[in-house]
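Q: Convert this sequence to C-alpha cells.
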Amino acid sequence: MSTSRHHHYLSQCYLKGFTQGSAKKSKLLVLDLKNNKKFESTPRNVGGMRDFNRVEINGIDPEIIEKTQSDFESKAATALKKLEETSDFSGETKDVILELIGMLAIKSPEMREHLAKPQAQIANHIMAMTFESKERWESQIAQIKQDTGEDISVGTTFEEMKALFEQGAFEISVSKEHQIHVELVGMQRITELLHQRNWIVLETGDEAGEFITTDNPVSLTFHNPALFPFMSPGFGLPDTMVYFPVSKNLALIGEFGREDAIKTANKHLVAMLNSKIIANSYQRVFASKSNFNYIAKGGAMQLGSKLV
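A:
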C-alpha cells in the first residue's frame, strides 16, 4: 500500500512552475471558472483525486501505475528545471518533457469520461445485436461458457434477459483498468507525434507578464479553425499548433514544417497565449498571481483579476 491514496493527474512538479515561489509548497492562485471563485492553494492540494491511478488486477500491485508515474515525474522535474535554466530543448530534456506533454494531454478525469462514453455505447450496441435472436444469445452464452467455464445466464431465460435489457436494467460501464490501458497507449502515440513537430521555446520578455496554465494544459488547435468547421484537430494533422505553458516564464509551441528556435514573447503574445489556454481549460486556471494578462471578448487586454 502506498502512503497516500491521493493521486495526481496534474503533476506537482509541473504545477510548481506556476507558483509564487516555484516550489511544491509554494502558493498557487486557483481561478475556478465553473463556480466563479478564486482561492490560494499548493500543487499538492489541486489536480488530484482519490485512487485515480489505482488498479485491481490479480497478482498486480494496486499502486503500480502510481509508483511508475511517480518515478517518471522525478525525471520530469529534473527536465523542467534544466529547460527553465538553459532554454535548451534537446536531448533527454526534450524526450522527457514531450512524454510529460503526452501524459497531460490525455490523463484527466474529464478525458477519461470523454473516452469511456463511446466505448460504453459500442458495448450497448453489441448487447442489442446479441438480443436480436434467441439463437444468437444462446450461441454467445455457449461460447463464453466454453472459454471461461462460467454460465453467465445463471438460469435466466432469453426472454427475461431481453426484457431487462429493453427496460434499461443493465448499467454499462468501462473498467478503470481498461481506461488506464487506453491512456497508456494514447500517451505513447501522442508522444511519438509530438517528436515529429518542430518546437519554439518562448521566453517572457521584460514587462511581458507571466504565462499561466490550467487543468487542461495541452492546447491543440488548427491554425485556421474556420477552414475545418466540422473537424477536430489531431496531434498528427498538419496546419495545427500544440501550445504548452512550461512555467510562468517559459512556454513551448510545436508545429510541423517549421524551424526549432528560441524566441522572446512580448506582452501581447503572452496575453494571447494565456487566452488560448484559458479557452482550453475544463474548469480551473492556475497562476502565481492575479495580475496576468489575457485577451477578453472584444479583443481588449484584461488582468486575470477580471476573470472571475
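Residues 108-195 form one domain.
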